[in-house]
Design goal:
single chain; 159 residues; mainly alpha; 6 helices; 85% helix; 0% strand; rod-shaped
């Protein structure tokens, strides 16, 4: 199992560095870290073996996350990383803590706030465009009705 974990670590670390915004990276991160947090509650012999493998994979994910340039990926994993600081495995706790210690949450929050403000501004602009278009439609409909009325009058005069 350790060999497979090393292969996974190499591949996943490469993905975290080269394609951190790929949905598969985020999904896999959340699935492995989430599964590790949930598996802490299991105590059967088979569950212990699976738990060790999950913990090894979670440590590999944490090692990979330390190399990613994407704060968005880290912010997405933030709640699970916090929960991992309370697991029994010291290595996993330290790995999660190192990532949390290196995160720049104020920058991420500021960036998200800026994105939200830009989205609000764009939504207002679109709403204003929509109102202008509705007014134009009303004007054109009234003009069309007037032209149809004039056509009807014109047609009556020549019949």
């Amino acid at each position: 199992a350790e060999g497979a974990v090393h292969v996974f670590l190499s591949c996943f670390m490469g993905l975290c560095q080269k394609m951190p915004t790929c949905p598969a990276v985020s999904d896999l991160t959340l699935k492995i870290l989430g599964g590790t947090v949930e598996s802490e509650d299991l105590f059967s012999e088979n569950a212990v073996l699976q738990s060790k493998t999950r913990q090894s994979l979670a440590i590999a994910v944490c090692e990979s996350l330390k190399t990613t340039p994407s704060q968005d990926l880290l912010v997405g994993a933030f709640p699970l990383l916090c929960r991992l600081t309370n697991v029994e495995n010291d290595g996993l706790r330290r790995a999660a803590g190192k990532i949390l210690g290196g995160m720049n949450l104020s920058e991420a929050i500021s960036r998200e706030r800026q994105r939200a403000e830009q989205a609000d501004t764009r939504a207002r602009e679109i709403e204003e465009e929509n109102i202008a278009m509705l007014e134009e439609i009303e004007y054109l409909q009234a003009e069309n009705e007037e032209l149809q009325r004039q056509l009807a009058v014109f047609s009556e005069e020549f019949t």
